[in-house]
Amino acid sequence: MTNWIETLRAAVLAQGQQAVARRLNYSRTTISLVLAGKYGGRVDLVQNAVQTELGTVACPFSGQTIARDVCATISTEPIPTHNPSKLANWQHCRHCPNRSTGE
Predict the structure, then answer these.
(1) What's the superkingdom here (predicted)?
(2) How far is CA 21 from CA 11, 62, 94, in A?
(3) Which of 8, 85, 90, 92 is the one with CA 20 to 30 A from 73?
(4) Contacts of 61 (CB under 8 A, 6+ apart)
């Protein structure tokens, strides 16, 4: 997995610090302190938020790298009986080690 600080830094460069902070449910100040290596709070919680919201995962079904939040959406949605392709993906997700539990 990519270094989560680099993932955070890249997101801030692309989207802006305020937008990333909102997406992660942290303040702009917290993001700034984390990036500067001066955050006094629980960095592990920020790391988890970055990996969950901004991280990527290799999808064994599609063979592509997808956003972790896309993976979570696919794996926690109700069974898509209307589309055979989506159904096959959903069924594969049931046994995937990357599967989100929806928590």
Answers:
(1) Bacteria
(2) 10, 30, 32
(3) 8
(4) 88, 89, 92, 93, 96
Length of the chain: 103
Alpha-carbon distance of 15 to 6, in angstroms, equals 14
Give residue 75's Cα distance to chain centre.
13
User: For residues 26 and 29, what is the distance between their CA atoms, to the nearest angstrom?
Assistant: 8
pLDDT band at 1 (very low <50, low <70, confident <90, very high): very low
Maximum Cα–Cα distance for the chain, whole Å?
A: 50
Pick from 69, 73, 66, 65: nearest CA to 49: 69
